[in-house]
Amino acid sequence: MFTIFRRINMKTAYLKIKRFKQRACKREHVLLNKRIVFFIIFFLPVLSLSANSFTDNFYWSFSGSLLYFPANNGVDSNPAPILPSVGFSAAWQFWGPPKFHFRIEMTEDMYFSNYEYNVKLGYPMACSLENRSAFVMGFLTGLQLTGVIPLGQSDIAVRVFLGPAFDFRIITKAVGLNHPADYTGEIETDVKLQTNAIKEFFWNSGRWFMPVAGAGMDFPLNDNYMLGFDLRVWFPVYRLWTIDNTSNIDGWRFGAGFRITPRKKS
Length: 266
Hints:
Blueprint: H1 2-56, E1 58-68, E2 82-95, E3 101-118, E4 123-126, E5 134-151, E6 156-163, E7 165-173, H2 191-203, E8 212-220, E9 225-234, E10 253-262
Antiparallel strand pairs: 1-2, 1-10, 2-3, 3-4, 3-5, 5-6, 5-7, 6-8, 8-9, 9-10
């Protein structure tokens, strides 16, 4: 008799637990459906608005520049190179009252040049084609804060900018140096040793870090594009902690160029 009563109680408890789980599951489904409806009603329009806002405040451009790398190495000096450069920029405007805008801007400028390693001076120098040991392709990458000052209602604007920049260099042996005389085992004349020395110099002691500052101005080119002009300078701040035998002007970079930017539709 006690066994039968015990089984009845266990069955009753089981049914109660089962009904409780079913009710809890229904409540969870109802709550989930409410959350889905809430997301559709409130968050999707916000996400759509955010996407439109980002597009409205996103700017990009293609650019072309002339980069000047000054050098003063005395009797060992080669002409300081003036290098053509192509690049692009992308910016997001995060603050924009009518009379002044702030943007975060990323810029990229690509250049290339020939280099040799001057053993007597102890550092690389840009050089003429016949004296080359290494081919250097540089990527001047900047991440800067840009202030934009509109002038009137014609979309003419002045830009000023400042921020960190990095000269990422790909350094390889110059093309066409395959003669046995190019591999003497002496660093003065060995192409491979010179290329390795150039790599070590440029990538050590933060010599790739050089903040940038500059200014520019944009003008309407037509209904679809803006034409801008830029002046920039890169500061070799690594010279504050490195000991080089270079002259005071070495390591500085100066640039003048133009940019084409799609014009925002009114």
